[in-house]
Specification:
Elements (H helix, E strand, L loop, with lengths): L23 E2 L6 E6 L1 H22 L4 H12 E5 L1
Antiparallel strand pairs: 1-2, 2-3
Helix pairs in contact: 1-2
The chain binds zinc ion.
The site of zinc ion (ZN) has 8 residues, from loops.
């Protein structure tokens, strides 16, 4: 994902973004950003996520929906200026 202020790559898993709460700070430019889930995109990825869960069910059991949901959230999340 890219910072909406400086366009530099910002890792979703970086400490900066995982501090919790609403607004976050870009580690490159210090600009305030927030993570927003695009509901349309999330809806678009919902079907593949369900299919992935069905494929993974024999392997992961009750955890089968976790990877699909994680992918769905990651693909539909966008960084917006706060
Ligand atoms: Zn930035």
């Amino acid at each position: 994902m890219h910072c909406p202020h400086c366009e530099k790559q910002v890792s979703v898993f970086s400490k900066t973004l995982n501090r919790g709460g609403g607004t976050m700070t870009c580690p490159h430019c210090g600009g305030k950003i927030r993570l927003e889930i695009d509901k349309k995109l999330a809806l678009l990825w919902f079907i593949p996520a369900v299919l992935l869960a069905l494929v993974l069910k024999p392997l992961l059991g009750s955890w089968c929906s976790a990877p699909g949901i994680a992918v769905m959230v990651l693909l539909s999340a966008k960084l917006k200026p706060a």
